[in-house]
Amino acid sequence: MIIVNNYKIRSHLTLMLFTILLFSSVRAQNSGDPNYLRASVGAGYGRFITDMNLNGLNKNGFASTIRVMWQPEHLLRIGIESGYYFLYNYEENITDPDFGETDVKGSLAAVPIIIDFAMQIAPLFEIYLGIGPTLLITSFDSYGHETSSTQISTSYLIAITYAYPISDRSFLSAEVKGHHINKIEDSTLSFQLSYTYRLLEW
Fold this sequence. Notes:
Elements: H1 2-24, E1 36-49, E2 60-71, E3 77-96, E4 100-122, E5 125-142, E6 145-165, E7 170-181, E8 186-201
């Protein structure tokens, strides 16, 4: 569809633009600041954004993130994240002339492994850009037979985080994150609260 293609073009252009801004800002910060290694754990609400139209479709679910970031002397931070995103489930009662009536159930979840690039855009605010593979986990149940399958997709994300310090080494954060999965050409939007702790400083 033209709408989908335009959306993908805009998304890729946005990703390229922010990546250029990130790398061009590496030398913008004075050296001499300490290096940090920090870890974050977060969870919250996720919304699956799709054009799918199924009876009984539930696009609301659980979203979680585990992230480790290296914060060097310069502005650019680099790290890796994973997590679990419940994308959707549905349940529909159908009747087949040969097999009779049954409840059909299906669900889809995602487990990403993303390389993150981040930088501070204002006091206490960070922007994240990431790219990497995502494992898609599908399950289907009908007539008492349950099946499941997995597949890999490329994906990318953009997120904005507000981190409030509660001690010298720990922070409470609120994050808004968009995650686009290329294989299914759909996205998730999540709102998560997280706890961050500085593991190392040198």
